[in-house]
Amino acid sequence: MLVCTSCKKEWGEESRPWRCSCGGPLVVGGGVVPFNRGMIRRNEQGMWRYRAALPAGEVCEPVSMGEGWTPLVREPWPGLNLFFKLDYACPTGSYKDRGMAYLVSRIAGLGVREVVEDSSGNAGASMAAYCARAGIGCRIFVPGYTSAGKCVQIESYGGILERVPGSREDTTRAAERAAETTYYGSHNWSPYFAHGVKTFALEIWEQLGFRAPDALLLPAGQGSLVLGCVLAFEALKAAGEIPALPRIYALQPEGCAPLHSAFVKGMDVPDRIEKRETIAEGISSAEPVRGREVLAAVRKSGGAVLSCSDGAIWQGFLALARRGYFVEPTSAIVFPALRQLSERGLLRTGETVAAILTGSGLKGTDKIVALLGH
Ligand SMILES: [Zn+2]
User: Fold this and answer.
1) Which among 125, 215, 349, 354 has the fewest CB atoms less than 10 Å away?
2) What does the pLDDT look like over 272-283, one tens digit per residue?
3) What residue spans define the domains of the chain?
4) Which CATH class is domain 72-95+192-372?
5) How much distance in Å is there from the Cα of 12 to the middle of ligand 1?
């Protein structure tokens, strides 16, 4: 059963709604289901070892390429017990594979044969890959500025690529129009996506020896990592596995920071902003669909929303690359954010901190080459 986050109306899953008739986003109903270490399927390697934590996960047939169980790497950082979670090591090169593997598994089970999606690139590439595996036809709408690497991926997997001139929001509107006659599989609207994403947080907890970190750093456009994180840690807390939620620091580029602006003003909904171009294309969302939920989740965790300049993000990209991590510029926002949090005293000496590296640099080489000045 699905529930509207605005008006609380309930919907049967077999009717395949993508949002409520009131316009509100839907979530899977039933509240927090406790999850403990005894429920892990230890003979499964990827994210499906946590299938007991996924709604209907025990009965759904996974559309899978072994996504998940990505490395958690200890990283030297003054005063911190810091770890990088290398989710760019997922099958299509981004953490979106977690959400997509679960989303596509569920819609395949509901009989969907054709899907429309819109994406800044990574989610579209991931959806095209998983739809290819499931035999589902897909049409992916992307903004005209999307990196070549991601477009090549979508077409190679057999997805129909639709480039839309203008903003990310123009892309969404084009996809919604196309979806009037077919299933709209938008990962931002889907009630399933965040549940797949949450497995990254369950992994961090297991890889740290069944301990939650004190704080997490998560790039945030629509905020699915924040929402996934809260789903995971609330399930662990309900089972008595952890005493409290870790602090969540959601990171946005200065050029597009509606959540940051709302956070500092004390607002409950994303602020209306004038969007500027940013090298962090993967988190350039001016109108996050679930922004209210994301802001509430960050506040509940005792964390904050931060913003970083493109200059600082680019320096972060170079610093990460010099440490051996080739990530897309979007992901590099964690580096200047670590500095900012340390300087502001928000990360304390000796704390355990996890930062997720979300997407591979191989997707954005066209833009990286230009930034390197070649
Ligand atoms: Zn509603």
Assistant:
1) 349
2) 999 899 999 889
3) 72-95+192-372, 96-184
4) alpha beta
5) 13
